[in-house]
Design a protein that fits this description.
The protein has 306 residues and is an alpha/beta fold. The chain folds into 2 domains: 169 residues, Rossmann fold; 129 residues, N-(1-d-carboxylethyl)-l-norvaline Dehydrogenase, domain 2, CATH 1.10.1040. The chain has 11 helices and 12 strands. A hairpin with a 2-residue loop joins strand 9 and strand 10. The radius of gyration is 19 Å and the shape is globular.
Length: 306
């Protein structure tokens, strides 16, 4: 087990990981803002909701001020990944880097900045960040991890076991690509609809009884994404429609990150999520007109912020 872990990025997911992992190992946190790091050092991290935790962590906005970790979880949004990966360049040469971004291609972005061994991850956890030191744990769902460049399955299993020892749900896969695609299609279908309608992810996303039901659109978007995956030769780990049904039956409505971004009038991960799906569709010659339409609408929504 890794005794020293760095969580790079201290949003909702990074805060949840850091607070849980601090219960079982030495955790450092890399933040973007010095004031955020100072608050974490002085107050620690508090988790409420599905877990009630308090944790002490070491934090800094300068990676050079943090100790060498054995394992790094990169927890920023896809829109911030290139900047964060560049900040990590030249640091922690013996660490194993674990990407946790939505969409495809995060491993390539991080790998371009250093020859660290890589793990690929996707997470279904979610939380609401109330302050620099307090995050509410909303969905206690799984994190999936697989080997990447310079890593083997045993490395992914060790990282997943560490998360489980901290009270989180995690599974290792010998090949993460099928799992990444399952989440890619789920996110491209659910996040964009939430962003454009203003609705949280709730039972209307699964309703298909009447022609006007929103679930009709979500079902068709997922079917289109499945066609792209099939064209790319990817056998999905889980059916994204079943993932959608399961999530809408959890009780409390969930606010997807793209909806939160739109409400905050900031850039979304549309290029990393739907954009990745469309690029793969173009590569393998599978059209995705519904996803293309939603992609353009979200880009137009972003343009309205300016």
């Amino acid at each position: 087990m890794s005794e020293r872990v760095l969580v790079a990025g201290a949003g909702a997911i990074g805060s949840l990981l850091a607070a849980h992992l601090a219960q079982v190992c030495d955790v450092s946190v890399l933040t973007r803002r010095p004031a955020h790091a100072q608050a974490l050092c002085e107050e620690g991290l508090r988790v409420s909701g599905r877990a009630e935790l308090r944790a002490e962590v070491r934090a800094s906005s300068d990676p050079g001020e943090l100790p060498e970790p054995a394992l790094v979880f990169i927890c920023c949004k896809g829109t911030d990944l290139a900047e964060l990966a560049a900040a990590l360049r030249g640091h922690f040469p013996s660490a194993r880097m674990t990407t946790l971004q939505n969409g495809l291609g995060a491993e390539e972005v991080v790998g371009a900045q250093g020859d660290w061994p890589l793990l690929s991850g996707v997470t279904f956890m979610s939380g609401t960040r109330h302050s620099d030191t307090h995050v509410e744990y909303i969905l206690d769902t799984e994190t999936w991890i697989g080997p990447g460049r310079g890593s083997v399955l045993a490395d992914a299993e060790e990282a997943a076991a560490l998360l489980r020892s901290a009270g989180l749900k995690a599974t290792a896969f010998p090949d993460l690509l099928p799992a990444q695609w399952s989440k890619l299609i789920f996110n491209a279908s659910v996040n964009t609809v939430a962003a454009l309608t203003g609705l949280p992810h709730e039972p209307r996303f699964a309703a298909r009884e009447h022609p006007a039901d929103l679930g009709q659109l979500v079902f068709d978007l997922i079917a289109e994404g499945k066609a792209v995956a099939a064209g790319a030769g990817v056998e999905l780990a889980e059916d994204p429609w079943e993932m959608n049904l399961h999530a809408t039956r959890r009780g409390a409505a969930h606010y997807p990150s793209m909806l939160e971004d739109v409400e905050a009038r900031r850039p979304t991960e549309i290029d990393q999520i739907t954009g990745a799906l469309l690029r793969e569709g173009a590569r393998v010659g599978v059209p995705a007109p519904l996803h293309t339409a939603l992609y353009r609408l979200v880009k137009a929504k972003e343009a309205s912020f300016r």
